[in-house]
Amino acid sequence: MGERSNFIKKKFEEDQAPSICELHWAPCFNRVLDKKFLESTWKESSMSAFEDIPLQRMPKENELLFLLTHGSKHRWEKMSYLLDLHQFILWANFSQQDWERMIEKAFCFGWNRFCLLGLALSKNYYKSPIPEPVFDILEKSWITREEIFSVSKRSSSFPLPRHFTLLELFDSKKHKFFFILKSLRFPSSEIVKTYRLPFFLSFLYIPLSAFVAIRGWIQKNCSSLREFIRRIQ
């Protein structure tokens, strides 16, 4: 089940343009992990209503998990993702049992790193009411909350998240491998913007994505090609 988007357009009288609702079916690029989440969501969903329209609603800890994974998937490039997360945490008013359930599901779905990143950002920027034990448990599977942030050159009092890759958010080698394969098939927006190829040459994005990924790894881990050859030997 790859990522798809369904667009529902509805024209309101007060709107100047149609409203667009985008539905994401693959929160984490990985259909194995997404399957667990979707099974849990439908199994535990309950009837609710939105604008007097009856609908199925997922448990609130699943809603939080979805916001966390969606924001991390986009590397929190929009502050609106983070603000939505903070406001949802305030609205949900999680109990200790709710947080424990959320953590249990985060590890079950393989989303623990996605969750740590989003929660750390929300805690640092909006002082969201997230219990410290939540970070203690999540940090054991990745890095400490402090290591996620680096000091800004402009202001020593304003923390900035360090650069991270989406590959880091998967803790399983198998999931990392499948993510790499899918990344080769569907090039990132950065690659498409940098290397604009005509449609009939779009197949070249596959080797191009591989080249960019390998080059980035070498630049991050090795100071020279000679050192890279020494490492693989």
Content-based structural category:
alpha+beta
Major sheet: size, sense and barrel closure? 2 strands, antiparallel
Shape: globular
Instruction: Going across the biggest sheet, name each strand in turn.
Output: 1-2
Rg, rounded, reads: 20 Å
What is the residue-averaged pLDDT? Answer: 78
Number of helical elements: 11
Total beta-strand segments = 6
Report the helical percentage: 40-55%
Distance between the termini: 38 Å
Q: β content, as a range?
A: 5-15%
Low-confidence stretches: 1-10, 16-20
Order of helices and strands: EEHEEHHHHHHEEHHHH
Report on this structure.
Helices cover 55% and strands 12% of the residues. With 233 residues, it is of the alpha+beta class. The strands form 3 sheets. A two-stranded antiparallel sheet has the order 1-2. It has a two-stranded antiparallel ribbon with strand order 3-4. Strand 5 and strand 6 (159-161) form a beta hairpin. Helix 2 (60-73) packs across helix 4 (96-109) and helix 3 (79-92) crosses helix 5 (112-126). The longest helix is centred in the last third of the chain and has 17 residues, at 205-221. The radius of gyration is 20 Å and the shape is globular. It starts with a strand and ends with a helix. The relative contact order is 0.08.
